[in-house]
Amino acid sequence: MGGAAAAGIGVAGTLALVVSSLGGPFTQAAVAVVLSAGAGLGWPFFLGIPAKRTNGVILALSGAVSGVAAAAASGPEYLSWTPSVIALGIMAVIVVQLIRGTGQSHRLESTLGASSGVLLCALGAGWIATARFTGMGSMLLVAGISTTVALLVGAINWPDTIVAPLAIIFAGLAAPLAALVLTGVTVIPATAAGVLIGAVLAAVRRLNRTRLRPMPRPGLVALALGPVLAVGSLAYFIDKLLIY
Predict the structure, then answer these.
(1) Full-prediction pTM beyond 0.70?
(2) Which residues span the domain enclosing 106?
(3) Could you report the per-residue pLDDT of 104-142, keeping only the tens digit for each?
(4) Where is the signal peptide (predicted)?
């Protein structure tokens, strides 16, 4: 049931990121800010780390600032501010652990876990960068379709040894088909994007299935939206490296 709910949230988030690009970069950035808030505030609950509220705010702000910066940046380097945002977010996470003081529980786990959340949320700016770089009828659409396919396959309640290869294969097939029918993206970069997106989402699914504790609702939202945000930058860099 959790897998199906996470897939539904992830698909809705993906659809919102793709469709909002029609309204321009700042409309898409507004959607990215909302999704970053959901992913960032819920990520500490997903990992079960201390200082959940403080870390969650840092993660959400990292995603929000990165998304707005991608919408405002002059091209063609639309993610030029994202590394700085990630660095500042990780520094803020470390400061939180220093304030907590020595002897507090799970300091290392909290630092590493929150830092990974900063990375996921900030990389959501890649959806905006992809839309600004080549427009909606390009890699943005390919990434959206392959992400949706991988999420739906990942919702199947089968063992990871079966679902993970299926997610990678179907996402890798859906991407070039979408490219040929709906966009001008060539087969090779579309296939590369689909395979990598499928691999990322399958890996996050595996991470979730190693949990021994029940999933809180904020954690479920973060599980669904975190990897969706991250694959936006993956699509952007594939677009730049293999197409232009």
Answers:
(1) yes
(2) 2-243
(3) 667 888 899 999 999 999 999 999 999 999 877 689 999
(4) none
